[in-house]
């Protein structure tokens, strides 16, 4: 996958993307990330990328010209082709007003050949970018950042780890928190049979993980994990995942498909109270 980032702060990305799985994915040639400096697409002495808002009001707005001029030579399909799914590409505007970026969206983006991310700053980006060149607006959460750069880094990290081969053990990315979706061969992202009875998170939060030492300063690892009874471990993990989801993210329980076994466990947890 090729990822292009359009930003007025290209230096921002030296660091965040140079570690761990993202770095490895780039080294292995699974991902290629190119950062474009929007100031190089200005034509005045001051390399101006922003201007005052029409209609008055606070702050400055990123001008459309550098963004359009930076995007045009990238050799993408037309917006209509992209929106029709004819080009495996997506142009994304990072915005607090965007659709929420979730694991499902990450899985969708991981099936594409190219993603282009436009990072806003100041009060935001001239709306013609959203209306005429971006395919979608994405927000990484209900809070306001000062710029889209961190959001772009978050999206790249979440997407690159889903690229086949990026994570050593691919099964591990299928078992994680929120994961109830898998891409089919033709790249569509479908809901899998969410809550099967394996340790697949099925859209819930992940179960707790422990490693050695088995007793750390008098804090022991749960006994069940030490005795090698895989059925008991599976049940325990599922129970803890359900309990944690109920405690921290009850909203997820409204949307996931629970198995009969899960529903029973959940009813018991509710009856006994969350620990
Ligand atoms: N006036 C805007 C906020 C602008 S913040 C509003 O109230 O909605 C400046 C830039 O930061 C935005 O253009 C966007 O690119 C980025 N940004 C801020 N919050 C974000 C979020 N939650 N997700 C993604 N990008 C965000």
The topology string of helices and strands comes to EHEEEHHEHEHEHHEEEEHHH
Strand order of the largest sheet: 2-1-6-5-7
Q: What low-confidence regions span 5 or more consecutive residues with pLDDT below 50? A: 193-199
The number of helices is: 10
Q: Kindly state the number of beta strands.
A: 11
**Biggest β-sheet: count, sense, barrel?**
5 strands, parallel
Calculate Rg over CA atoms.
22 Å
- Approximately how much beta-strand content do the residues carry? 15-25%
Q: What structural class results from the helix and strand content?
A: alpha/beta
Enumerate the distinct ligands: S-adenosyl-L-homocysteine
Q: What would you call the shape?
A: elongated
């Amino acid at each position: 996958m090729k990822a292009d980032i359009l930003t007025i702060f290209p230096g921002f990305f030296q660091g965040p993307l140079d570690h761990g799985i993202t770095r490895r994915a780039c080294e292995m040639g699974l991902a290629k990330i190119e950062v474009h400096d929007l100031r190089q697409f200005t034509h005045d002495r001051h390399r101006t990328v922003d201007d005052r808002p029409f209609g008055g009001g606070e702050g400055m707005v990123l001008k459309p010209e550098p963004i359009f001029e930076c995007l045009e030579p990238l050799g993408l399909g037309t917006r209509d082709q992209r929106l029709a799914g004819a080009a495996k590409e997506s142009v994304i505007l990072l915005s607090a007003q965007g659709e929420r970026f979730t694991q499902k969206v990450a899985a969708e983006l991981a099936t594409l050949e190219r993603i282009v991310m436009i990072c806003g700053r100041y009060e935001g980006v001239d709306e013609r970018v959203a209306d005429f060149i971006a395919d979608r607006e994405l927000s990484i959460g209900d809070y306001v950042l000062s710029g889209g750069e961190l959001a772009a880094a978050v999206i790249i990290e979440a997407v690159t780890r889903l690229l086949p081969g990026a994570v050593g053990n691919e099964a591990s990315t299928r078992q994680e928190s929120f994961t109830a979706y898998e891409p089919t061969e033709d790249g569509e992202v479908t809901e899998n049979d969410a809550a099967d009875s394996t340790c697949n998170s099925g859209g819930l939060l992940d179960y707790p993980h422990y490693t050695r030492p088995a007793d750390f300063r008098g804090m022991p690892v749960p006994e069940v994990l030490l005795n090698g009874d895989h059925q008991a471990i599976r049940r325990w993990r599922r129970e803890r995942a359900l309990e944690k989801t109920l405690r921290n993210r009850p909203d997820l329980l409204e949307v996931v498909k629970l198995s009969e076994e899960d529903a029973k466990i959940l009813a018991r947890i509710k009856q006994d109270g969350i620990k």
